[in-house]
Amino acid sequence: MTRYARRAALLLALAASPAFADETVTIKNFEFAPMMLSMKAGETVTWRNDDEEPHTVVSQDGLFRSAAIDGGEHFSFKFDKPGTYKYVCTIHPRMVGTIVVK
Hints:
By secondary structure, the chain is mainly beta. The protein has a single domain (22-101), classed as Sandwich (Immunoglobulin-like). It contains one helix and eight strands. A four-stranded mixed β-sheet has the order 2-1-4-6, with no helix packed on it. β7 and β8 form a beta hairpin. The longest helix has 13 residues, at 3-15. Residues 8-19 have low confidence and may be disordered.
């Protein structure tokens, strides 16, 4: 692999990292934190599971749906359009959150 190919592969890996998310929601103690998040259209939210139990992130309008996110894993979604998006963990339905996109 050439030096340029290695550099390109590294840049692609870094761009896919949740560290580049515009906003982060932490899943901890069976809660989404923050429970409500405001952001601009075109930004990405990453939900990071810091619990030992799996969780899901599923929008009530069907716009996005994660698989089970195990502890230490994450799920990201880019919000392109303004609106209010409510979501829930389908494994633990008392866990709810809202994303407001302006």
